[in-house]
UniProtKB/TrEMBL annotation, chain A:
Residues 79-283 form the ABC transmembrane type-1 domain. This is L-arabinose transport system permease protein AraQ. Gene3D superfamilies: MetI-like (1.10.3720.10). The keyword RNA-binding does not apply. It comes from Paenibacillus auburnensis. Belongs to the binding-protein-dependent transport system permease family. The chain crosses the membrane at residues 20-43, 78-102, 114-134, 146-167, 188-213, 264-283. Its main location: membrane. It is found in: Cell membrane. It holds the Pfam family BPD_transp_1. The keyword Ion transport does not apply.
Automatic annotation (TrEMBL), chain B:
PROSITE patterns: ABC_TM1. Pfam families: BPD_transp_1. InterPro entries: MetI-like, MetI-like_sf, UgpAE/MalFG_permease. It is found in: Cell membrane. This is Multiple-sugar transport system permease YteP. The keyword Oxidoreductase does not apply. It comes from Paenibacillus auburnensis. Belongs to the binding-protein-dependent transport system permease family. The gene is yteP_10.
């Protein structure tokens, strides 16, 4: 925009300067907790006990990671649980939501407004936590089941509508010509629609996968067996408890007096966030598409 | 994630609701059978999602009745003794309902007002920045907190504020001052909670506002520039007025959700530290505690029902206002 600017008034230079300054400060404010967490995880335990967490430690120690990666069966379990619920939940959810979006976008589907309302109303009124809990435990028997962390979050009303809006971009004439060629509804969905919808599936799939990766709430409510804890809930337990020995490795003998309690909490946090931070630069644009797609009125 | 999708509802109407379609469905019972036979594949494709909503949402709704009984685990919701509004009376009398409602409302008001203002300010500042690389990197960094779980936010709080080894206490001790016990001072957590909320949510809203700004017709800015408008005048008389409708709509719809608390933020920062409750207990944490801590199902359900019902009324009122002001943006 400013490429062929002829002259700039002093006010605009000032505004530009302030903008650069404030954005930099705020970006650092956003990064600071991450930086502190990472440096704390590499700190020597004695230094933390003596002086506390620091941004620039005097000594670097890999002990927390060494212990976690070589001894912790529980962390491995938690990783497995989280990967399982993320993969199953995302794939299942995408399949269900893309079919629903496809049907609700079909103009020849008579009751699409009724079904849209049925879905939409659940965002306005909910039965509440306690009836949900009673249903999940007493009637669906999902207590302590991995599916207690998958099923309640497998589908989201807004994701369905987002999917439907994405689909509006696909011209109706495509369906029509396919129908004339004798293709059935599911075939049209699978062979024509899905290949065209890959970018939107990626966006919604990433939202969904992120939700499952960050899942801890249903784990806290419904999971009793420590081996079935998802990663984030495992982390939450780690931070709030002082006796970490049992949490890290049930069964095996760990000298608890020797345990780097403080740095290990931060190391677990780093390992739980790591994949997101590593993938973030590559998937970010899909998220931004998802966030701004709503700006185009459908 | 739910609440972030609020933006979509406002900006891209998912559909226009026709209340008539419901009535038509009831009246044309015969037609629906014919319709299902004709479009059975489409109905089958929609079925999994509908089943999900029926089981996990609609089947739960009658359970809200538990708010009106003295819940007995063995007798179940509908077998328990009906006590009418006793649960609500108790909650009003002991002051709990008032306290958590007040906290929830005040926190959400601050999140909404302060949050939106900060998002707008940063969106404008980013739009004024011309360095492409700087813009891209800073945008990514500010958006990053949006993607981590609130459990990690809880870890950050521990990392920064805990008594024995927290970062701030490290600084205090190293400058010769005394340690400060953050976790026993309810007053200070108001600010910490708001700060983390702003920290976690600015990136998202900023990008939504930034999309509106970059959507402004380029020619308009060019014309303003030709006419000799300064940057400040351009922001004041063009950008801000263009953002105003979005801002008002987001505020209004935010008001509709003002009884819904950010459970994951509050729980991960406060946890079960009851010292901090007076100023940090919101409706959602209260309901959760009544389920997990005290096993007082009916009391918790009463609060939950109150929240859902007034939440629904609020959304309807807000939608009514939006429809008067800007019919195109109303939800239904």
């Amino acid at each position: 925009m400013e490429k062929n600017t002829i002259k700039q008034d002093s006010g605009s230079i000032l505004i530009k300067g302030i903008s650069y300054f404030c954005v930099t400060i705020f970006a650092l404010f956003c990064l600071f907790p991450f930086a502190l967490m990472i440096s704390s995880s590499f700190m020597n335990e004695q230094e933390i006990v003596r002086e506390g967490y620091k941004l620039l430690p005097k000594e670097i120690s890999f002990k927390a990671y060494d212990l976690l990666l070589n001894n912790s069966t529980q962390l491995v379990n938690a990783y497995q649980v989280t990967i399982f619920i993320t993969v199953v939940g995302t794939v299942l959810g995408l399949f269900m939501m893309s079919m629903a979006g496809f049907v609700l976008n079909r103009k020849d589907f008579k009751y699409r407004n009724f079904f849209s309302f049925l879905i939409y109303f659940t965002t306005l009124f909910s039965g509440g936590l306690i009836p949900t809990y009673i249903l999940m435990v007493k009637h669906l028997h999902l207590k302590d089941s991995l599916f207690a962390m998958i099923l309640p979050a497998v589908v989201g009303a807004w994701s369905i509508f987002l999917m439907r809006n994405f689909m509006k971009a696909i011209p109706d004439s495509l369906y029509e010509s396919a129908t004339i060629d004798g293709a059935g509804d599911f075939r049209i969905y699978w062979r024509i629609f899905i290949p065209l919808a890959v970018p939107s599936l990626a966006t919604i799939g990433l939202f969904s996968a992120l939700g499952f990766w960050n899942e801890w709430y249903n784990g806290m409510l419904y999971i009793d067996t420590p081996a079935k804890y998802p990663l984030q809930y495992f982390l939450q337990r780690m931070v709030s408890q002082t006796n970490l020995g049992a949490l890290i490795n049930s069964g095996a003998v760990i000298n608890t007096a020797d345990l780097p309690t403080q740095s290990i909490k931060m190391a677990t946090a780093v390992l739980a966030t790591g994949p997101i931070i590593l993938l973030y630069p590559f998937v970010q644009r899909y998220f931004v598409t998802g966030l701004t797609i709503g700006a185009v009125k459908g | 994630m739910m609440e972030t999708f609020l933006y979509h509802s406002i900006r891209s109407l998912p559909f226009k609701l026709e209340v008539g379609s419901l009535a038509r469905l009831v009246h044309t019972g015969g037609n629906i059978v014919r319709e299902i036979i004709k479009n059975k594949v489409l109905f089958l494709m929609l079925l999994p999602v509908i089943l999900y909503f029926v089981i996990f949402h609609y089947a739960v709704m009658p359970g809200a009745y538990v708010a009106f009984v003295d819940y007995n685990l063995n007798k179940g919701i509908f077998g328990s003794h009906f006590i009418g509004l006793k649960n609500f009376e108790f909650l009003v009398q002991n002051g709990d309902l008032w306290n958590i409602t007040k906290n929830t409302l005040l926190y959400n008001l601050v999140f909404l007002a302060l949050g939106n203002i900060i998002q707008i300010v940063f969106a404008i500042m980013l739009s004024e920045i011309s360095g492409k690389w700087f813009k891209k990197v800073s945008q990514s960094v500010i958006l990053l907190p949006n993607f981590i779980s609130m459990v990690i936010v809880g870890v950050f709080a521990y990392n920064i504020f805990n008594f024995n080894s927290g970062f701030i206490n490290t600084l205090l001790v190293s400058t010769g001052l005394d340690r400060y016990e953050f976790y026993s001072d309810p007053g200070i957590w108001k600010y910490i909670i708001v700060a983390f909320k702003i920290w976690a949510s600015t990136g998202y809203g900023m990008i939504v506002y930034l999309a509106t700004i970059t959507g402004i017709n380029h020619d308009l800015y060019e014309a303003a520039y030709m006419d000799g408008a300064t940057t400040w005048q351009r922001i004041r008389y063009m950008t801000l007025p263009i953002l105003k409708p979005t801002f008002i709509l987001l505020l209004l719809f935010g008001m509709g959700g003002i009884l819904k608390g950010s459970f994951d933020l509050f729980y991960n920062l406060i946890g079960t530290n009851s010292v901090l409750y007076p100023q940090t207990d919101i409706i959602d944490t209260y309901v959760f505690r009544s389920l997990v801590g005290q096993f007082n199902f009916s009391m918790g359900a009463a609060v939950g029902f109150y929240q859902s019902l007034f939440g629904l009324i609020l959304v309807l009122v807000v939608n009514f206002i939006v429809r008067k002001v800007e019919p195109d943006s109303a939800l239904f």
